[in-house]
Amino acid sequence: MCSHRRPDTAPRGTTIFFFAGERAGLAKPRSPLAGFWALLVGGALLTMLTVALHPATDVRDCPNYGGSGNASAFPDGIWDLYYPLLLLVWLLAVVMEQLLPVTWNGRKAGLIIARALLAVLVALTASCGAVFTLLTLCH
Predict the structure, then answer these.
(1) Burial letters for 13-27: b for 16+ Cβ neighbours within 10 Å, e otherwise?
(2) What whole-number distance in Å separates Cα of residue 119 and Cα of residue 26?
(3) pLDDT (tens digit, 9 = 90+) per residue, 68-110?
(4) Cβ neighbours of 53 (radius 10 Å)
(5) Model confidence band, residue 16 (pLDDT cutoffs 50, 70, 90)
(6) What is the DSSP string of 21-47?
(7) Could you count the other beta carbons within 10 Å of the beta carbon of residue 93?
(8) Helix (H) or strand (E) holding 1
């Protein structure tokens, strides 16, 4: 080994996961909607899907009204399976977006956690409300 080489002692400024030279795509100014795109776009798409499926919203609209047995709130019964799965995928997309470093761009840890909790709780509340309302209405 060459003893005349000095080790590189230049301090490297770090961020959460990146060194200063590695922030290629993260140097843009932060967007106030960063971390909420999956929540907003997914919620809008699921709302449009729900309106397009035209489920029963009142017990009197159910096919088994006045009788007994199980029925679906949707015109096609397969949506009793697909709809909760889509809501679960939406919730997982919201959680995954919160784990991306792009959503943290220049924010403090407390703000990152608060925004993540807000997004996940809103998605969870909307999902559970929609599932319990639509899937238990005609049963």
Answers:
(1) eeeeeeeeeebeebe
(2) 21
(3) 768 888 888 899 899 999 999 999 999 999 999 888 877 888 9
(4) 15
(5) low
(6) GG-TTT-SPPPTTTT-HHHHHHHHHHH
(7) 16
(8) none
pLDDT digits (tens, 9 = 90+) for 111-137: 999 999 999 999 999 999 988 888 888
Cα–Cα distance, 37 to 40 (Å, whole number):
5
Positive or negative CA dihedral for 119, 122, 123, 124?
A: positive
What are the tokens at 87?
């809501």
Name which of 100, 101, 90 is nearest 42 in CA terms. 90
Tokens of 35: 């971390």
Find where tokens 């996940």 sit.
120
Helix (H, G, I), strand (E, B) or coil at 70: coil
